[in-house]
Amino acid sequence: MQILLVEDDNLLAEGMMNALKRAGFAVNLSRTGKAACTYLQAEPPDILLLDLGLPDMDGLDVLKFIRDKKLQVQVLILTARDSTNAKVLGLDAGADDYLTKPFALDELLARLRVLERRLGTANTAMIHVGPLSLNTTQHLVLLNGDALVLSRREYMLLKALVENLGIIQTRESLEAKLYSWNDEVASNAIEVHIHNLRKKLPLNFIRTIRGVGYVVSRQ
């Protein structure tokens, strides 16, 4: 799941990016509204975390840009503006959720999971596919009731596949879900992760569609 964080406070941005990456998100950072608008139009993320008090423009103008361009992005406002009127303005402008600073990381992650479920096929924190169960809250994967030991990116890759049952995921789309812009990505990174996952999963659980990508079908 690709997140764009728009935040000009370096310390806060760094802390949030580290926490979100540990939680299994691919996160990119923009420190200005204008840069965010450029990124959004070139490569829209799945979720935008938007501060309103940006140095070059108001965050609500970024939100207006998104809605005017009809970009399909879930927007969670993160701001110190805590008045009821400010919340109403943000939500009426098209935000999907609104969280005031300071906030608890657990609450942010919970709200992100809600937005994430709106984007995927899963409508609960538990995803069941045949003998496999994936708990997106606890980052726990069970196979026939036994816990699987997965690396962070193996978990992210498996989650991306099972949330899109029957829908082929290209290597490029999977890379976007697993890696941030400044990550060094080996040309065969996805293939390596798929290979390692297959050693832990039932035979043919992940199918290769030659020349297209990978898919997990309903079991």
In words, what does this structure look like?
The chain is elongated. It is an alpha/beta fold and 219 residues long. The chain has 8 helices and 12 strands. It has 2 domains: 2-119, 3-Layer(aba) Sandwich (Rossmann fold), CATH 3.40.50; 126-215, Winged helix-like DNA-binding domain superfamily/Winged helix DNA-binding domain (Arc Repressor Mutant, subunit A, Orthogonal Bundle), CATH 1.10.10.10.
Order of helices and strands: EHEHEHEHEHEEEEHEHHEE
- CATH third-tier fold name of the largest domain: Rossmann fold
Strands ordered across the widest β-sheet: 2-1-3-4-5
Uncertain parts: none
CATH superfamily membership of the largest domain:
Response regulator
Question: How many extended strands?
Answer: 12
Number of domains: 2
Name the beta content range: 15-25%
| Fraction of helical residues | 25-40%
Pfam families: Response_reg, Trans_reg_C
Protein name: Response regulator receiver domain protein
Keywords: DNA-binding, Phosphoprotein, Transcription, Transcription regulation, Two-component regulatory system
InterPro entries: CheY-like_superfamily, OmpR/PhoB-type_DNA-bd, Sig_transdc_resp-reg_C-effctor, Sig_transdc_resp-reg_receiver, WalR-like, WH-like_DNA-bd_sf
